[in-house]
Amino acid sequence: MAAAGTTALVTTSASGATTALSDRWYAAAPYLMPLDNDPPDAAAIMDATGLKAFQLAFVLAPNGGGCSPTWGGTSPVSSDTAVQSVISGIRAKGGDVSVSIGGYGGTKLGQTCADPAATAAAYQQVITKYGLHAIDFDLEEPEYENSAAIRNEIGAAKILQQNNPGLYVSVTTAGTADGTGWFGKQMLLEAKSQGFTPNNFSIMPFDGGFNGAASQTTALAGFNSILQSTFGWDQATAYAHEGFSGMNGRSDTGEYFTQADFQTVLDYATAHHMDRFTFWSLNRDRQCTPADNGGRTSGTCSSVAQSSWDFAKYSVKFAGVTPPTTTPTPTPTPTPTPGVSCKAAWSSAAVYTKDNEVSYGKHNWKAKWWTQNEVPGASEWGPWQDEGAC
Description:
- Helices cover 33% and strands 18% of the residues.
- By secondary structure, the protein is an alpha/beta fold.
- The strands form 4 sheets. Strands 1, 2, 3, 4, 5, 6, 7, 8, 9 and 12 form a 10-stranded mixed beta sheet that branches.
- It starts with a helix and ends with a strand.
């Protein structure tokens, strides 16, 4: 069954499955939202940086419930052509993708599917459709506070690993100052109890009172100790199964991570032979306009001084490749159209549904799903899509 399934995912993929890249590329793939947050042109990023791999986000359960995979809770994978086109374009240039499931917002398949087997079957649809060689389980709140959901996710990851030989599997979870918190540790214990070992367990050391690279490397060292004590690994083995997932520029809680911070963490990761170095996100890997850079976190720019795709180059270095020495002229972030009128002001008491528009903070916003009393721009994973200044 496993061998047949593996053959099928290469031969029946409608998006043109290619020979797998080295695991190092999947380990270096930055996150890209292909349908939201003003998706950048993957081909342009590849040309400018030498990047070959992208981590596409996020596959979720349908917003109305059910155990079938969708992009962002709204676009069924079964009928998708938009993401498939993005993947085909990347592969045509010699690159490839991993797909990330979960994330911060929306309902996860682990929460809605009946058991690990059903959860795995839903994810297998994604693997087969796109001919995937890599998948990422992004397990964070509120899902990782649900022990049954985490049992489904970890069990599904183990099944997929068994049924798709060679599949690169990463598991990403929240980071804290000492490595990861109680729920992250429970997730590791669940993996231990099921006898599941992915290529890596990665932490996200941001949005938790971090301050630059030194606080992040301290967290990575702490997480290494947690991996050792949980699985009985020595330090080197733990680092070989450990990953870093950062956030470029301004985080949701107002922390700042610059190019210099990325270089410091990259040096730490390579010196300790860590398995993964990635970041959230390529949609943010570009300079904000003055109107966008008003001391807030954006889903479409970094809020730090940079040229386009500066942060992607650290992923390229982690993969073992030297980025191009001459960078094409950065693509400027579009400036707001003069005279764009502001929509009706956002109200904390009002109920908004998909595609409703409001104004807040001199920007217009469009609802991505049902929402009430969620401030536009408070989180890039939230229910509001920024439509620009007004």
